Amino acid sequence: MTPPDHYAVFGHPIAHSQSPRIHTLFAAATKQAMTYEAEDVPPEDFEEAVGRFIASGGRGLNLTVPLKELAFRMAHSVSPEAARSKAVNTFLVSPDGHIHGDNTDGRGLVRDLTLNLGIPMRGQRILILGAGGATRGILEPLLKLGPAAVTLTNRTAEKALQLVLEFEDLGPLKAVPMEALQDPPYDIILNATAASLSGDLPPLPEHILADGGTCYDLAYGKEPTPFVEWGLQHGAAISSDGIGMLVEQAAEAFFLWRGIRPETAPVIETLQRAR
Ligand code: ATR
What we know:
Layout: E1 5-11, H1 19-30, E2 34-40, H2 46-55, E3 58-63, H3 68-74, E4 77-78, H4 80-85, E5 90-93, E6 99-102, H5 105-116, E7 125-129, H6 133-144, E8 149-153, H7 157-167, E9 173-175, E10 186-191, E11 209-217, H8 226-233, E12 238-240, H9 243-258, H10 265-273
Parallel strand pairs: 1-2, 1-3, 4-6, 7-8, 7-10, 8-9, 10-11, 11-12
Antiparallel strand pairs: 3-5, 5-6
Bound molecules: 2'-monophosphoadenosine-5'-diphosphate.
């Protein structure tokens, strides 16, 4: 019997990562001989840890906070989405040691929104809160879906303006300062700030969500995030956290590694039941 192929997720911290669980479920469902582990890797140890992993026969990695930009710089080749976002969350390692970097976060979000939650994106008015790495990773796939407009707003306004400069060739994109957020309602509001992680919520005007609109928090936790609660209190037809995106971005990585697309619905359900 051929020995299993080795995969891992690197991040710092990593203890609460759900990735080993997700990939183990994918591997069992698709009968793939592989192992998947989580390793706590601080940024200063990143290159050495990747070298060690590859030397020991590792075939692929997931990279999470705070390693995605470092991973982008270390990859030998990158996908167009990773090049745009300047961030990599997946390494595919060839037998000769070549590292190909991809960023599956945006595709994962789009699959969760459109396929799992059934939200049409074409012609929609989308507001994104935050202008950090998470926003960078989702702009290209979102703009490709043909929204009416994507508006960025961020606590530090200049960072939103910078993203507009980098991505406006892909579609209708603009930046609005948080304190000036009042205009027409938005059909979809995405929270891509790190605020949920500390139990915070960016300040939002009362009537900013269109009737029956969607709120989606890229973060997730055991309890509904403050932004998911905000959506429920402000008439959202759907107010979801990012557990589906987490599973979908993992499925995209799994597909890259194994050439097989695992079913995501049972895994999302398992994760939802476990909290
Ligand atoms: P990530 O890679 O997760 O996006 P990041 O690059 O540090 O992390 O970006 C975090 C985002 O959350 C930023 O948009 C940040 O706003 P600033 O650019 O002003 O720092 C935003 N953010 C973090 N905490 C926040 C809070 N309490 N309220 C509003 N925005 C917050």
